[in-house]
Amino acid sequence: MRTFDSLTEREILALAIALEEEDGRIYADFADGLMESYPDQARKFEALRTEEDGHRHRLLTLYRERFGEHIPLLRRQDVKGFVSRRPVWLTRPLGLNAVRKQAALMELETRRFYEQSARRTTDAGIRQLLGDLAEEERRHEHTAGEIASAKISEAEEATAHRLFVLQVVQPGLAGLMDGSVSTLAPLFAAAFATKNSWDTFAVGLAASIGAGISMGFAEALSDDGSLTGRGRPLARGIVCGLMTALGGLGHTLPYLIPNIHTATTVAVGVVAVELVVIAWIRNRYMDTPLLAAIFQIVIGGLLVFLAGILIGSS
After folding, report:
1. How far apart are CA 278 and CA 276, in angstroms?
2. Is-contact 173 293, C-beta < 8 A?
3. Where are the domains of the chain?
4. Low pLDDT (below 50) residues in the chain
5. Per-residue pLDDT reduced to its tens digit, 141-162
6. Top-level CATH class of 4-147?
7. What residue spans of the chain are helical by DSSP H?
8. Rounded CA gap, 230 and 236, in Å?
9. Structure confidence by residue, pLDDT tens digits, 205-237
10. Residues linked to residue 2 through DSSP beta bridges, in sequence order
């Protein structure tokens, strides 16, 4: 790696051109990643990309005047002192706060590079351009810091809410419903058949984990999210699987209580809480009327619960 002090004026300009090209591509990736959820913020990053492209043209023009057509390949990783950038722009969906921090760091680093370079150069034209670019990068740094804190339009808020429901709430709710309801029958069947808390706990634990794995794979393999906007399948599968297991474990854990009657009483209370929570989530995020959601969930849960009791008592 080269040290900054060892760079010639030609190499400083070549590095500046490479920095502007890289920053422009990163801002284009930011704009693309934010367009679906935050279109207004994405357009601001597109404007920054255009300005970085203007910087590149000015640097190229001056380089040709001073040193000709050939530009040596010199990148930030070839020079000591530059910060290693984490590729957050490859993550979907992008978070505004993560993008703001990355963009502000980029502009701070580039501004300091221009300021240090302007002090070292003896060519008046190069020094003037680098000084001007340092001031423009200072403005960019301020703009990047404001982008994430700017007021998000109602349309963007609605889009972000819709994506949150599609990518997090729906798979999580599906898992919670399956885990809370489907494990009732084997759990209470075991409780009434064995009259033993530990055996019942083992059945409930196996049913919860098994349901979690099954639902997680089913959700992850259902679609890749490219057309539905439901996000990355791996993330959906993890959310769905964890919530399925959690839904089953909620009323399984009471059977760690040695007394089977006390454990069953507590488990029934937990089931009631779980069903109310599911009904609230459906009302809050799925626009299902609260009474209708409660009726649907309670009726379904009650039928499964009774099936478990009948089977276990027979």
Report:
1. 5
2. no
3. 4-147, 154-313
4. 155, 226-228
5. 777 766 655 555 554 555 566 6
6. mainly alpha
7. 9-34, 39-67, 96-120, 124-147, 154-164, 170-182, 184-194, 197-220, 233-250, 260-285, 290-313
8. 8
9. 998 999 889 888 888 886 655 434 566 788 888
10. 79
